[in-house]
Queue: 2 jobs
Job 1
Amino acid sequence: MTDTVRRIRMPGTLSIGWKAVLIVLSLATALIALSIGRYAIPVRDVAGSILGHLRGVEVLSSKDALVLWNIRMPRILLALLAGAGLSLSGLAFQSLFANPLATPDTLGVASGSSFGAALGLLLGFRWIGVQLFAVAMGMLAVCLTFLAGSGRGRGLNTLVLAGIMIGSLFSALVSFVKFVADAESQLPAITYWLMGSLDVAGYKSLLYGAPPILVGIIVLALLRWRLNVLPLSDDEAASSGVRIRTLRTITILMATMMTASCVAMCGQVGWVGLLIPHICRMKFGNNHLSLVPASVSLGAVFLVVVDTLARTITAQEIPISVLTAIIGAPFFILLMRRSGGWQL
Amino acid sequence: MNIRIENGSFGYKDGPMLLKQIRLEAGEGQMIAVLGPNGVGKTTLLRCMLGLLPWKEGQTVLNGTEIKDIPKRSFWQQVSYVPQAKTAAAAYTVEEMLLLGRASHIAPFAAPAKADLTIVQDVMERLHITALRRKRCNAISGGELQMALIGRALVAGAGILVLDEPESNLDFRNQLIVLETLKELAQEGRTIIFNTHYPAHALQHADQALLLKADGSSRFGAVEEVITEDTIREAFSVHSVIRTIESERGIVRDVVPVALQEKTES
């Protein structure tokens, strides 16, 4: 009798069907997004060109190839990476702090990076300089948060409070940079950058920005079952036999690195880190065995879709943060009301 | 399996010593109750014993080795801690929660294997919580959650179980289920150490007891010697009567509080 009760599938893992859906959905979305634009390229040609490139031949006309490979491909790659990275770091921070309201910016990373980028633009740096400056400031912000909030006997909540303080400090610094910036040339650039955009994407930008995100995704994906220990109370986590301090440090490091890199490449893209992990929790439960792959995949899909809308629905490109919120908020409310929400 | 506290003393930073020269020894198959009035440091004692808080003086010794010298992972494979249920209700399903108990046996980059799942399912059957396996831990009753947490401790395979108020906030029936389960686990050769608010539970189920008093001193020994009307008056400032009740189902010892001790009496 006991044998009939036993299930074969490990609890909390994705079913084969869901795995297939997540993979196919990501690939299909990217493929369709590559074909859509003011200059349309049929999906079949896009697929043909990609397969051709694997064999070292180009099947498209030179104009099509230019649009596909030099303009759209880096942008779609960036959208995939940034969506996956922001979603996963949001997930990591929510579990780490056992707080459903945690976002990639909880420790002040995004505010720090924004300040770095704004300052870089103010000082007239070239694009790569702005990007590196943004990462550096993001890391600095998290270090300051740690100095302010961590210490023996202090809980993680102190760290969250310190993060809010450091975050608002850097937000104020961003405002200050905007205040002193030249209103004709610099201010629009800074403002536009802060609202987020993926249109600056090029392979060079990806060369610096992609590796940290990929490393973060790989490390957290490998640790995915271990991440289940994070939301437990301190004594439970410690008595599980897991090196909880090391696990927390690695998680914070990876999530910070991914967020700083994303913000450096495409500005402040809000909502992804909050919205996507929540949707995944409503659908798949709280086990990171399924949450990590689902968040990565759906985060990537979401940002590709939103970015495609941002660059196609109007003649002038819409800042991406505006769209993530306009699409994200109602969708999220709808889901929350239908599923009854979730608890961490 | 043998765990003992040697002259353990603890006080928070700059404060007075909360626990003074605690002595406790627990061997295989023994069930030991830790008693004391509110705020005397029962949970603190357990946390110090397990190395979750550092002793100011003294030490905990597991099988002859001071626990500071035992690697954490190895220690938590031998000793399991069950915290108070109210602090432990992450929204995992019961089955997922039990699987987390295998963490010290699973490599950092690995996920649980079939063997781990089999252990979990065996424990769920043993504790009669198989029906709950798909339910969320934050959506089950206090008694069910307590059994799930005991289950999580058991799947780690530890010989020593340390529980913080396992039967608090439970109704009569669930109190008995938890205490009887602990008794069975002890009879199978495990060591059970638990905090409790109820002297009667210690008398009825434990072999030995540690009674903490408000001045930080303590008394450890066989349960009948440690829990008497006199010691209860000293520790809790309550006059009580200990009596033996006969019934068809057995004979139980009970502690009934009768009156508060007036300050002037002592």
Job 2
Amino acid sequence: MTRTSGANGGGGQSGKLPRKRFYRARAHSNPLSDSHFPIPISPDDFDLSQHYPRYYPADKGERGDGEEVEAPLIRFADVGCGFGGLLVGLSPLFPDKLMIGMELRDKVTEYVKERVLALRASNPGQYDNISVVRTNSMKYIPNYFRKAQLSKMFFLFPDPHFKEKNHRRRVISMQLLDEYAFVMGVGGIIYTITDVEELGVWMRSCLEKHPLFEAVPEEEIEVDPVVKLLSTATEEGQKVARNGGQTFQAIFRRISLQEE
Amino acid sequence: MEDTAVEEAEVSGAAEFAPALVAAHPFGHSVAVAVGPDLRVFDLQGGCAVSLSDDSGGPAHSDAIRAITFGAGGDLFASAGDDKLVKVWKTGPWRCIRTITSEKRVSAVAFSNDGLYVAFADKFGVVWLEAAGEDDEGHVSADSKPVSIFGHYCSIITSMKFSPDGRFIATADRDFKIRVTLFPKNPMKGATEIQSFCLGHTEFVSCIAFTRISGGSCFLLSGGGDSAVRLWDHINGCLLDTYDVRDNVGELSEPNETEDSNLAIGNICLTNNNSMVAVAIQSLNGLMLLACDLVAKKLSFLKVIRTEKSYIPTSLASRCWEGLLWTVMGASNMPNQSVSQLLTRVKIIPLAQKDVQASAGHDSAALDDTEVPHGEKLLLALQGSLDGSKQEEVLAAVLAALKVSMHKMLVKKNYSEERREQRKRGRNDKKIKN
């Protein structure tokens, strides 16, 4: 940890940002296969001191007197965070909110980890509220977050999985929305964006059909500072903008169930 | 070593074996045993085997039955399995009133408490719902189709139960999870609101069961591949107590057979007024009894009931307030066995209330074949033959096959780095696996 070799792109404590070319990875990863990385058994088992040392000092657990002020919980999750552009953009906007990126590809996760460490080193006091974890969020969301813990979830430029046979690999589906609704508090907002029209229509229709979500009104979307970041902060979004592509957003709010 | 075992199974394409299952009528009218595609029912009141008639117009079971259950009222019964069929039966008299075709193999089945719906889970982790019974004129609407109401993301659902108060449906999967979902008033529109996740198992969850303090609150019990029986407050998703059967491993097996991987919990069953949990454990010839104290919210060891050496039960059933435990052992698809002779052994273990207090010295034991109610008639009906006890070798083979099969299906594959790379190279996503 004290010295990072050149081969993995540097960064880390030295304060130099890692370079992406050392972290090349496939664009896709199979969400259906059994995972080989450690997964917390339950949210209680999720060690936050590794991720947010400023909020969760490592020795805190040993004192165990339970008198200290309760540390904040993670409130934002960027599912499939890729190279972490959104997190870096959000961090200064919400300096007192903890946020986590979830990414399945290990090399990409490594990159984001280095990127966050480098940012922290070169901007002391900032970027302490963002981190990244390598996981399969389609399988393990409830292992990381408690009921109603999150206030924002992001799904930016997810894999389109065009073939019908592979639609169950899509990160937004009726089934998975149940789990997202579970970890989100009432009033929480789910942000989705894609440059693939077919997927945009799919994500919107899933959210529209789901009884625990309702569309956020246009006026609110316009004044939400987060919305601008969806297409500008992420690497994918910038790529689409460079190519002059169109994007499709669906922004929905978690509501409580109305039983007729 | 683990690695090679898994690979061997892949190469040889070993057949899948389904364990024999047993279910007891909630009022003790009958008992059902399923082995392979064979469903055997014995009428305990009439003292005779039930001949099953099929009015549904659907096909009969043609592959291993994976799940059987009685409805809470006892008037309905369901069987489902690898042939992608869910058959709903009326129990008085026994006849099949509905055959539902699933898109995938079915791994679990349950009736809603009011008996209006039958829910089944397929191998892809999707839970489907369909009206269970007949309408007022005794007809089954032909055009009704099952509706998917929720799902576990691509994970095999191993067990599914409705809570006794009818508020929740709980589903357990091979990814260590138990999901507790609110069962809505109009469930055909989907069950989207999750009440809790019960997380704590460190291996697949093989079985779950609800219990309740008489007239009071409900609790959930679960057993898993991690050798643990756990007690949950399912409303809040809190783990209340864990009992690791390895804690009493000394009483379980001879020293030379204490292999942790063999101590997966196969089945759990509440009995004796919900005060006791009977636990079937892989490699244990017999049962473990735990006391379940719902006031103190504690599970504690009572004793081990031994059966003959080669009898390791695969499934348990009991009426919750009666101390009579039905156990069965057997497997489908055994080589050299015709369907009519699918080997099954049934044993009945009477448990007295005093077993709770009694020391380990007080012996409960399985009834001898001659002491079984209705004697040979019942054994012949449920076992398919009477000479089961003489076939020790076959029983041993059944056991070995079941172990491999369960391991293959439920335990997370663990490949070495090297082997993983190799698999990636040889991968062909277009190939349809089956």
